[in-house]
UniProtKB/TrEMBL annotation:
Domain of life: Bacteria
Gene3D superfamilies: Hotdog Thioesterase
InterPro entries: HotDog_dom_sf, MaoC-like_dom
Name the record gives this protein: Acyl dehydratase
Start and end residues of each MaoC-like domain: 16-116
Amino acid sequence: MTARQIQVGTRLPEHRVVAVDAEHIRQVALILRDTNPIHFDVGAVSAAGLGDREINQGGTTMAYVLDLLTKWAGSREALRTISCSFRANVFRGDDVVVGGEVTAVTRRDDELLVECEVWADANGRRAIKGTATVVLANYA
């Protein structure tokens, strides 16, 4: 993508996670030492009035957004800021669509400072909404 092609309104390529896996949710809970039973105990999810499927960690859903930005920008180092709000749960079996749109572009020497709105939608629910800034190098 060239500097001219990156402008306000440019859409980031969508990233899709198909059927969030219960085993992956459990593994992340173990790695994080997250003892909240909504991530691995369907009875606890039900008792909390949250449904009948395990709930993905919010940080894992946000990581899907980070993956999108990293792939689009070309490196982790390109990410300067990110701010997200968690608006809905992502459940086992949900399909997640992650996307973004450029909201501002500033040229600085041979770099572009690109501000974006970002999101993660799970089966039609906006699970994450936020903003991010990336720096794209070598754009003369």
